[in-house]
């Protein structure tokens, strides 16, 4: 019987539950996707190349878990506030408090289990799609991958069920400890707020100072590092809260006093609507702003990291292709690259030393990248054979292109006649530049693999001189940053869904009460077009406030990534465009649902 009543209650609140259900579906599906990629052991063992990507998805799981906890507890509070009146009526009709608490427990667990189960199933399909996109992005072939992972599915179910179990207990306890009259009249009970001008000004100044401190720490993150990040974790949320709690109230009061603005249309009514609930809105606006900044920041950083692959690869390796013992490779394969520069250098070696011909290095000087800092552009410096003869210690610049066995030997630069006089085995070292590295990746990859086959001591990224081979560098950065790109995008979407759902909960929870106010305005002659315009404006303000402040947080917060990439703002236009489009769609949906509730016919 209790289960039937719980299902009936869920059915009556299906529209409200749908918002929570959709947010949980997205969160659980992305959670499963991250876990399935990180826990697929056979896949990881057979594809060691993407090990760095898995670390990124593991980080994503932790971040998603934290924000999901906040979302579930916050959204559940709104649902309880909306349902408590109906529970109080059942108690007045004779239902025992323990039975109502049990019903709430069942209802909460049911919606949690069902949404997680459906989200996990969606996650299986999402994992399959992401796997294909990720592998295409990484330009590698994988084996032993399955979108279904029993371990990951169980972890997802257990994590979300545990959260809802805690929430269900909290819901039941909160109902037991509240009197029936308070449950019935809580929405109608006026909240009296004491306005203390001194505290109001102090709060505004405090919020402004906290945000200034955050901005200063972000702009000087290289100096303060962990200390700056730790302090910002506290100053940003508190400063944001004080900003809304003081500045927004002050602006609303100022606008109400400006008769030229407040007297137009229903502006005075809209300002009154916002002012009436502003202190309650302050909490959710501050929370939505922080989640907005996290979501937008995740997408922006992901896009910026991916765009940094080409730049960082170009500034790490001076040549597009290094071929050891290139005499073993068909020259036609090299010419297929249409190289813009091809330096072929002969060397002779014995058990102790390796010798180079200075005349060849004079004809085609060695190009070396030199960089003074991470935010500076690398410049190419050339060294000729004469430079190596006059300054023997410069020979280490050549050793970075040698094999591991050659690195252990002493390298010497000799004049052409002395080199020719040596009666030793001879080999070739080829250093090649092409017009466009990324367009030639398939051909370069084939030659790198052949070079590795000709020289078995080369161990790829594990090789001592791996960073002189641009393809290895590209492979490393591409795998790592593609992981960040995917993680940032899906975390951003998940965060956006949650923050928009919370904001929708808050706005829609007051729609039923606002219906009476708009009905009254209609009876005194206000046209429906004017009423709808007032609704559009009110909801737009509630969406714009966290959006604008959140974007400012992101623009300052990106400074912390200047230590890892030269231009962390490169992904801003694309990321902001995608995110704001989705955010605008949520605004339109909220506006539509709110208007439908307010203007529904009795």
UniProtKB/TrEMBL annotation:
Key word Transport present: yes
Cellular location(s): Cell membrane
TM annotation in the entry: 17-34, 54-79, 100-130, 150-176, 197-219, 231-255, 284-305, 486-508, 539-558, 570-589
Alphabetic keyword roster: Cell membrane, Membrane, Transmembrane, Transmembrane helix, Transport
Membrane-protein topology: Multi-pass membrane protein
Cross-referenced PANTHER family: ABC TRANSPORTER PERMEASE, ABC TRANSPORTER PERMEASE-RELATED-RELATED
Family: Belongs to the ABC-4 integral membrane protein family.
The name this protein goes by in its record: FtsX-like permease family protein
Organism whose genome encodes this protein: Enterococcus lemanii
